[in-house]
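Subject: mismatched residue count in predicted assembly?

I count 217 residues in my input, but I want to confirm that the predicted structure covers every chain. Input:
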Amino acid sequence: MKRITQIEFMKNAQKRSSNQFKKLSAKPEVKKVLRKYDYLLDRHQPQAANGH
Amino acid sequence: MDIEYLYDDPPMIEKIESDGEIALLVPVAVDHDEGYIYFVWVAFSPYEEGVLEYSFCIIRRNPTRDEEIPYWSGLETKDVFTCPKGREFIRMVIHALTNSLIEAVAPDRVYRCTFDIHPPDKALDKHHMISWLFRSKGYSVMTTDPWQGHRTWIMEKIDSGTNQA
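Triage response: the counts match. Full output below for your records.
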């Protein structure tokens, strides 16, 4: 892979995507999608799929 | 800790678009003892004009408290996903979602950096996988010397077919 020495993008390195996620996860549409899978906890756990 | 990995019958991959960010999300594991659901989240986020930032993380959802915690570092999840097969499965899901995201968005320029400062070689495994995935999709991949301990990459779409895999 080609290496570059001038780090042109670093000036905005503090713009972490983690901040973006914090903003996103508070949005109703994201919460709605996440909540959709809460049923997974109520399922009977299939032993064969455990992976241990 | 008893983790159920969702190897079979994968749930639908969810696409979320908001404020210029495009993310794919899918549940991958359930901790029945602790009451958590784990998701893989892969996203392109606005970074600079003409540049998106690529990122992935694991989200732990606690339905009882209706709250989520994102894990950006493998150091945070190594004690959660202790099963090697499970870790490989999650790696595979990150790969699959990233592949779908690149195909769906086809960005011209993408920036990526490690969350961890001075990540160990093993922690870079997923990033190497991502670099090669972008490469196989027709992108050049440039890396830099570490910046304040972070490793960074810039991927650019190659228009001509001269440098493609």
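Helices of chain B lie at 74-77, 84-105, 125-136. Marking this ticket as 'not a bug'.
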